[in-house]
């Protein structure tokens, strides 16, 4: 009978570009040690702010988050108005599947 031996897993597979000595020299960082870049660091790195993305929100148009959003209940078709932080439930039947109503924005399609 053949006995199955467990395979040893390497932390990173050895490819032709990486050798065993290069794996030993690399420092691995744990999740706890990683700190994501902050907005102030990104602003300093971009200099004048013309390159890259404008993630600060200055000059761009965002919708007002305190504005209520209108939904339709998936069970009783009741109109439900929710604000930020409200529980996602129908106020009449308690159903938790809500469908967002269509906007009244005019959309013009160009046919050729």
TrEMBL record:
> Which residues does the annotated region (Disordered) include?
1-61
Which InterPro entries did the record assign?
RNAP_P/RPABC4 (IPR006591), RPABC4 (IPR039747), RPABC4/Spt4 (IPR029040)
Q: Name one GO molecular function term.
A: zinc ion binding
Residue spans with biased composition (Polar residues)?
16-39
Where found in the cell?
Answer: Nucleus
The UniProt family comment states: Belongs to the archaeal Rpo12/eukaryotic RPC10 RNA polymerase subunit family.
Name-wise, this protein is DNA-directed RNA polymerases II, IV and V subunit 12
Q: Which organism is it from?
A: Pseudocercospora fuligena
